[in-house]
Amino acid sequence: MKELSEHIKSFLSISEDKLSIITEKFVQKNINKKEHLLRSSDHVREVYFILYGCVRTYVYDVNGAEHNITFSMENWWFGDLQNFVNSSPASLNIQALEDTTLLTISRQNWDFLLQEIPEFAYYTRILFRNTMFAHENRILQNISFTAEERYQYFLEQYPNLSQRISQKHIASYLGITPEFLSMLRRRK
Fold first, then answer.
1. Which residue, among 113, 133, 109, has the nearest Cα to 121 in the 3D structure?
2. Which residues pair with 101 in a beta bridge?
3. Radius of gyration of the chain (CA)
4. Cα separation of 62 and 83, whole Å?
């Protein structure tokens, strides 16, 4: 839980007593590579904080092809946040790309912390704001960047990730074919 405590303290000042209350509401969970945490239409019961490992969030298009939306790794929050907050069925799939250790928190415990610990509410506002900015940035890139520019940005933003996950998943994230990604990589 030290990682979560440090993450929270990197955004705000908070007492050790309140940090202890927060971390007590989390459960550590290990998942294996290729294991799914969530499939679309499942009931969204938890959100997650990664201690170690990497996961992908993806959707299927009408033809059944997978499209990676995000990759999440150490010290990142992830989940189907919209449906977690709205208590709706999942629209996303989440799968481990490596053996992963994470912390989970239920909706009930999340709501308790929001009501009882103002610092946690502030922290989550920061998280949601940062998530919104990241998604907005990704949309703008997909609209206005070339494939080569998207790949270059990916390498700059996530310098070690390309060694941790398959080129197929990176290509899906960038909206290109694996063959085109190979061509871009040869140019570098």
1. 113
2. 30, 52
3. 17
4. 21
CATH (domain of 13): 2.60.120.10
What's the CA gap between 141 and 53, in Å, rounded?
26
Q: What kind and span of H or E run contains 137? A: helix 118-144
Count of domains forming the chain = 1
Residue 147 lies in a domain: no
pLDDT tens across 9-33, in order? 999 999 999 999 999 999 999 999 9
User: What are the tokens at 79?
Assistant: 């989940």
- d(Cα 163, Cα 130) in Å, to the nearest integer? 25
pLDDT in tens, 71-117: 999 999 999 988 898 888 899 999 999 999 999 999 999 999 999 99
Q: Is residue 161 part of a domain?
A: no
DSSP state, residue 71: E
- For residue range 158-188, list pLDDT tens digits in order: 888 989 999 999 999 999 999 999 999 888 6
- pTM of the predicted model, to two decimals? 0.91
